[in-house]
């Protein structure tokens, strides 16, 4: 457990390094900016099979990024808030309920920076020079991703420290990916590299120099492969939606204590804390085992999902909608499988053969695109009629009529509707699917 947590923290430092240095590349260009509130889900993988998922939220001049790794306790990840308006970043450790504020120094060519965060008192010492050389090349390739035009860019960045530098950390970072101009408002004017493990803490201050060639604005990555000193990380956006976000998400959380250093933020837990954590895990395992004995897998309800009936005649992949519903129900603890049958009688036979307790039928009764000129990607990328308007009026609307039927009695267990009305078609579909899944979970909970 402790080794896994340590490895995860090291991975988070690498990601923080790449992310923070990226802010130095966020400069305005002539491309049309994409504004508004955004929520973005990102899948990340690193060498050695380590996988993570992160959620990034953008609101005006602020960005919030939450990273978690499968198998880690809830809240054991790291949350980073970048406040360009206040020229600072806030790193949050929810497990310890601590946060660390790091100022974003600004400068055009040379920027002195305190490489150790907060000092412990005493005079600061001038270090050496760390030089970053950045070259970004636009391949000229373009493609539509999530309804936006993405550019294919390649970037190479190297850092070189002088012998007297406090931070002896020579790096080579290579990026290859597809980018959109989403982060225009997040231009922090920052040239401050992030803190990294092993950096000195006695008030030593290096001077950072940046030399750039090629494209000025890298942009926001929708698909990106990054290699740092031979270690490769892949980042892929799996969901991008517009929605109104609470401003409180982008500031210091109430009731948290400020830490002075990164080491203090992620200090190893005491023996007492580790013993208490172990007791909690044993108690949780005991409850899980007891639940399994009283409600074995064979006795739990199983739902067969029939392919969606497209009454709205919209051009959309009903099979992919069904797959998403299956995944949502599975994530909520309900065993769900797809049924290939095309009629009710065939569905009943297939459901019995697959050991299903219920059959779920879903009709797409409403599928209305927004009249905003926006397009979407993913499983809705082939939808027709999306976009086409120039006025900012009308939201996307989706409505599903569904019924949950008992295999044993052929009688309805649940009959209802789920709807979504959001800024984009994909967001409205996701909202309706989530509502349907919640209703089904509630209906089968009592079996």
Per-chain topology:
Blueprint: H1 2-22, E1 38-46, E2 51-59, E3 62-68, E4 78-83, E5 88-93, E6 98-103, E7 110-114, E8 125-145, E9 148-161, E10 171-180, E11 204-214, E12 220-228, E13 231-242, E14 257-258, H2 262-265, H3 271-294, E15 302-306, E16 309-310, H4 318-331, E17 335-339, H5 344-353, E18 358-368, E19 396-406, E20 412-422, H6 425-445
Parallel strand pairs: 6-14, 8-11, 15-17, 15-18, 16-18
Antiparallel strand pairs: 1-2, 1-13, 2-3, 3-4, 4-5, 5-6, 7-11, 8-9, 9-10, 10-12, 12-13, 18-19, 19-20
User: What is the overall number of helices?
Assistant: 6
Distance between the termini: 36 Å
CATH fold naming of the largest domain: outer membrane lipoprotein receptor (LolB), chain A
What gyration radius follows from the Cα positions, in whole Å?
25 Å
Net shape: elongated
Total domain units? 2
Biggest pleated-sheet summary: 14 strands, mixed
Which range does the strand content fall in? 35-45%
Structure in words:
This protein folds into two domains: 2-265, Clam (outer membrane lipoprotein receptor (LolB), chain A); 297-445, Rossmann fold (3-Layer(aba) Sandwich), CATH 3.40.50. A hairpin with a 2-residue loop joins strand 8 (125-145) and strand 9. Helices cover 21% and strands 38% of the residues. Strands 7-11-8-9-10-12-13-1-2-3-4-5-6-14 form a 14-stranded mixed β-sheet, covered by helices on one side. Strands 15, 16, 17, 18, 19 and 20 form a six-stranded mixed β-sheet that branches. The model is unreliable at 1-9, 19-30, 106-122, 190-202, 290-298 and 372-392 (pLDDT under 50). The protein is built from six helices and 20 strands. It has 447 residues and is α+β, with helices and mostly antiparallel strands.
């Amino acid at each position: 457990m402790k080794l896994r947590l340590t490895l995860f923290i090291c991975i988070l430092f690498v990601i923080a390094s790449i992310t923070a240095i990226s802010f130095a590349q966020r400069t305005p260009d002539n491309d049309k900016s994409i504004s508004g509130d955004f929520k973005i889900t990102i899948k990340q993988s690193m060498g050695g099979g380590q996988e993570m998922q992160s959620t990034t939220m953008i609101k005006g001049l602020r960005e919030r990024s939450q990273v978690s790794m499968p198998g880690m306790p809830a809240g054991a990840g790291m949350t980073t808030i970048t406040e360009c308006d206040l020229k600072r970043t806030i790193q949050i450790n929810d497990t310890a309920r601590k946060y660390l504020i790091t100022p974003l120094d600004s400068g055009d060519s040379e920027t002195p920076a305190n490489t150790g965060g907060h000092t412990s008192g005493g005079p600061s010492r001038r270090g050496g020079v760390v030089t970053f050389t950045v070259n970004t090349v636009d391949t000229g390739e373009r493609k539509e991703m999530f309804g936006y035009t993405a550019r294919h860019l390649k970037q190479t960045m190297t850092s070189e420290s002088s012998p007297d530098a406090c931070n002896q950390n020579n790096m080579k970072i290579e990026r290859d990916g597809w980018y959109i101009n989403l982060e225009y408002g997040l231009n922090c004017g920052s040239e401050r590299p992030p803190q990294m493990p092993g950096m000195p803490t006695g008030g030593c201050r290096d001077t950072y120099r940046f030399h750039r060639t090629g494209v000025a604005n890298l942009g926001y990555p929708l698909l990106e492969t990054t290699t740092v000193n031979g270690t490769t990380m892949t980042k892929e956006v799996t969901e991008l939606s517009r929605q109104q976000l609470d401003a409180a998400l982008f500031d210091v959380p109430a009731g948290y204590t400020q830490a002075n250093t990164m080491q203090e933020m992620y200090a190893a837990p005491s023996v007492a804390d580790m013993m208490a954590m172990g007791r909690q895990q044993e108690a949780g395992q005991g409850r899980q085992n007891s639940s399994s004995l009283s409600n074995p897998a064979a006795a739990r309800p199983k739902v067969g999902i029939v392919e969606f009936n497209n009454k709205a005649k919209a051009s959309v992949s009903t099979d992919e909608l069904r797959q998403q519903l299956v995944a949502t129900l599975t994530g909520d603890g309900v065993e769900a499988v797809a049924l290939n049958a095309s009629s009710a009688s065939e569905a009943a036979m297939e459901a019995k053969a697959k050991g299903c307790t219920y059959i779920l039928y879903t009709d797409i009764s409403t599928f209305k695109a927004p009249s905003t000129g926006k397009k979407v990607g993913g499983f809705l990328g082939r939808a027709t009629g999306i976009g086409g308007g120039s006025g900012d009026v009308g939201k996307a609307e989706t409505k599903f009529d569904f019924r949950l039927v008992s295999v044993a009695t052929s009688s309805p267990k649940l009959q209802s509707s789920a709807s979504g009305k959001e800024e984009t078609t994909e967001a409205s579909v996701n909202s309706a699917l989530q509502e349907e899944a919640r209703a089904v979970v509630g209906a089968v909970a009592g079996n």
